[in-house]
Amino acid sequence: MIRRRDLLLAMPAGLAASALPRDLALAQTVVPTPAAEPKLEPKLPAGFTLGASTSSYQIEGAVNEDGRGASIWDTFSHTPGRIKDGSNGDVACDHYHRFAEDVELMAQAGFGSYRFSVAWPRVQPDGAGAPNVPGLDFYDRLTDRLLARGVKPFACLYHWDLPQALQDKSGWTNRDIVGRFTDYAQLVATRLGDRVPRWAMLNEPSVHAIFGHAFGNHAPGMTGWKNYLAAQHHMNLAQGSAIRALRAAHPKLGLGTVFSLQPVLPATGKPEDAAAAVRFDAAWNGNNLDPLFHGRYPEISAADFAPFIREGDLDAIKVPVDFLGVNYYGRAHVVDDPNGVIAGAGWGPHPPGTRTTAMGWPIEPQGLVEVLARLRDDYGNPQTFITENGAAYDDPAPKGGTVDDPARTAFIRDHLLACQRAIADGCALKGYYVWSLLDNFEWAEGYSRRFGIIHVDFATLQRTPKASFAYLAAVASGAPTGTILTGP
Ligand code: FCB
User: Which atom of ligand 1 is nearest to the CA of 260?
Assistant: First the structure.
């Protein structure tokens, strides 16, 4: 198993910080400077959805309530050494009990929609069989509350919290999971499909397959390229299978899935880095996009996947979607690296002068335009939502009922401006969900990274909306944002 420490040791000194995978970024990141874009008001078209995203394990807590089973993230976070600050999601934001307050805040922000995920182990504690009704009841209460406050629910069926019982049977590397996931999807849609109009099957299968199954720094902590290939292929199949099943049973639902997409660029002019970027791009982007939209794997990946592909699989994965969710955080600047986590490629230095967030991730709003242009040009311009975009910063403590977070506010503003440019370029972009509504459990980083537009005091669980919340509320209501955004 590769650990952060070993990775650092294996890296040339100058590369260390920027070469680290996203969630392995060190504390010693570049201090964010104010945004460089001019002060502009985003002008989003009528009908454009503004909302916020979260995921079940990162916010819910209540891990032993109402019959919930264990998930792979419970197991992983309770394993010493796995989470940077030794924390876990046992309580998280206690959203399970405080959801009404959280919905109220979304209503105050004027959000049109909320993307949340359903925890599979609440619905099927053992990953199979009849539903655990009290678990489904929670999402029923949440849905009704959202609708009562005018916020459209957008459910994601899987944001990485697999029932541990299924992991005990090899999880996503076991092809049987395709049937299990399809059954689970049906259970949830049967209960909520009369009120939840939009459904994403999976969140970021590539990230889950790479970090959880090849690299091992995310649950379930499996390692090896073979496990990545199996997990990625079975997620592709599960996604296709569930979309077909839900479409047949609930023809009115909007069905899609969520990918993490990044433009991938060689970090230097070396030919081997250019080749590495092609491999990295396939793993990060193409191994999700090409099977779904074109019914094939990228040429460079085809031989790798061949042992896992059975007759009919590629036809089963290719399925029309009503929308694609895109999680966008930045570009990937890549180098050739024989020990690299992704097909012999790894993260290289960002271009000189690139500003970064507290995760060490590059701030590159134009990359969002590039990703959407690729969807327009190569994948038939599907109806798209930015289902995640946001930034971690080391915020100051709440003061006077708010938190001053100008860098995050500018980050959001600059990405909304990028959305505006993409729409002007003819991309079928219909909405933007900020990551995240709340500061929360940031996977292997624990509570050390704050992405929320609402501050959470993890000792008292008190919520305090940040200035970025006020900014988005102003954008949502069409009010001028100048008084909130005081940055350049
Ligand atoms: C995405 C994940 C989300 C959150 C953000 C920062 O990859 O989908 O849960 O961790 O990154």
Answer: 7
